[in-house]
Amino acid sequence: MRSIWRTLDRGLARDIGLVCLADALVGVSYGAIAVGSGFPLWAPMLLSLLVFAGASQFMFVGIVASGGNPLAAVAAGLLVNARHVPFGFAVGDALGRGLLGRLAGSHLMIDESVAFALAQRDAARRRAAYWACGTGLFVCWNLGVVAGAFAGSAISDTDAFGLDAAFPAVLLALVLPSLKDRASRLPVLIGVVVALAATPLLPAGLPVLLALAGVVAGAAAKEPKSLEGAH
């Protein structure tokens, strides 16, 4: 771990620190929303330790809190985290050596740690950025969740502080960068239309699953065309 921190330059360490700070603040909102929505104090903390995927955790809490089936919430979270499969191929060399090292590295695989790793040119800096970002975010996120959970137990109405806006804001932040790619706009549009059409008709949680399925189907439909264009 010491060699990892020595490999980072000051600018990269500063950028990682800022991301960790922002993630801690989002963790506070997640913990407060979860407890304020009726979850026991330990639930968001345990989810954060075992799952460590902000978007999936927000989605799970949002679906269950709105009356959705917990199984549908879990399925939605798994669909969101399906992006980790290609992530693993992209940063596999940074995960570490040995079974335990690779398991720990896989647990730290989130959007930010992958993005910082892929931005580095050489293998040593890629590994250092991945582990520094992943470890820092894991610590800061969980500390933020603990603080938010205790705050949520003391606040009767988290919506009054605007914390309920964190869930859609996080998902929107994840989607917006991909909209720069023209090929990604159609799947996202399909998902939006499916979710809006299904929400009045289906129980909570199912519209999210259908929307995610629509996004996947739209992306699959665009893929062959993009491959044909490449040839």
TrEMBL record:
Keywords: Cell membrane, Membrane, Transmembrane, Transmembrane helix, Transport. Its main location: membrane. It is found in: Cell membrane. Coiled coil: none annotated. GO terms for cellular component: plasma membrane. It is a multi-pass membrane protein. It holds the Pfam family AzlC. The chain crosses the membrane at residues 12-35, 128-154, 160-176, 188-221. GO terms for biological process: L-valine transmembrane transport. InterPro entries: Brnchd-chn_aa_trnsp_permease. Belongs to the AzlC family. This is 4-azaleucine resistance probable transporter AzlC. It comes from Amycolatopsis rubida. The lineage of its organism: Bacteria, Bacillati, Actinomycetota, Actinomycetes, Pseudonocardiales.
